[in-house]
Design a protein that fits this description.
The protein is an alpha/beta fold and 274 residues long. It has ten helices and 15 strands. It has two domains: 160 residues, Periplasmic binding protein-like II (D-Maltodextrin-Binding Protein, domain 2, 3-Layer(aba) Sandwich); 104 residues, 3-Layer(aba) Sandwich (D-Maltodextrin-Binding Protein, domain 2), CATH 3.40.190. Strands 3, 7, 8, 9, 10, 11, 12, 13, 14 and 15 form a ten-stranded mixed sheet that branches. Strands 4-5-6 form a three-stranded antiparallel sheet, covered by helices on one side. It is globular, with a radius of gyration of 20 Å.
């Protein structure tokens, strides 16, 4: 009897963990299974994107799948508009934001996992553009994803430490926000913009996919780290996910998943467990 009561209590605690956090019990062969809904930008490779078959894949989604497998959760992959991610999280549509999500500048807005990837913001131009350094961007049109870290790196200077990037942005003819980086590259190819400010991992992926028509300028706009963002105060779900990620780092699974994306530098960029 005591064992039955304990099991029932454990089940209630597990359901409570996900209530109000984007979790809905889902029927799976007449068995309730807890869902874990990951909000991600579907055009942010290699972290989250659609492959040639239309399936959502990527490094972050692979990590989430392993976390769910170890916890007996059902993974739901939920593509979101990046500029509406906060509304999706606050209303419980998603359980977390897990997709190359920069922690810096957002520390107090979410309950965060530990950082797991070191990242930087860079500038991409056409190889034959004649632009060889940041000084060459003066008077040029630069694209950046809306509500991105690259945009923050070029427009925010609350503590006065980002004056060089602010001056750089002021030298541009324009700084144009686009919904995603596929759109940015289409604009760059068409000559509508002269450069793109973006995450280095995404830049490396795009350059590998698009041949040698583009280059990354030397230097970085900002160094940062990626984490998983949970609704502010949702420490229980964060702790459950983090515990599993720590176990994956300890047994080598985390590094093994990163090795799948070696050609885009992810094996060197991961920082969890190092």
């Amino acid at each position: 009897m005591k064992k039955a009561i304990a099991l029932a209590a454990a089940a209630v605690m597990l359901l409570t963990l996900f209530t109000g956090c984007g979790k809905q019990p889902a029927e799976d062969n007449n068995t309730d299974k807890t869902t874990f809904t990951v909000g991600f930008d579907a055009e942010f490779p290699p972290y989250g994107y659609q492959d040639e078959t239309g399936e959502y894949v990527g490094f972050d989604l692979d990590l989430a799948a392993e976390v769910c497998a170890r916890n007996g959760w059902e993974l739901v992959k939920k593509p979101i508009n990046w500029d509406s991610k906060d509304m999706e999280l606050e209303t419980g549509v998603i359980s977390c934001i897990w997709n190359g999500f920069t922690m810096q500048g957002r520390e107090d807005k979410y309950t965060w996992s530990k950082p797991y990837v070191d990242n930087s913001q860079v500038i991409v131009v056409k190889k034959d553009s004649g632009i060889t350094d940041y000084a060459g961007l003066a008077g040029k049109n630069v694209a950046v994803q809306a509500d991105s870290s690259a945009l923050a790196a070029l427009t925010q200077n609350e503590d006065g430490s980002n004056a060089d990037n602010i001056a750089l942005a002021e030298s541009f003819r324009s700084l144009t926000e686009v919904p995603d980086y596929n759109t940015a590259f289409l604009n760059l190819e068409a000559g509508a913009v002269d450069a793109i400010a973006m995450d280095i991992g995404v830049a490396q992926y795009q350059l590998e996919q698009r041949g040698d028509a583009f280059v990354i300028l030397d230097g970085t706009l900002a160094a940062e780290q990626y984490g998983i963002g949970f609704k502010l105060g949702n420490t229980e779900l964060r702790d459950a996910v983090q515990k599993t990620l720590d176990e994956m780092a300890a047994d080598g699974t985390f590094a093994k998943i990163a090795e799948k994306y070696e050609k885009w530098g992810l094996a060197q960029a991961v920082c969890l467990g190092k």
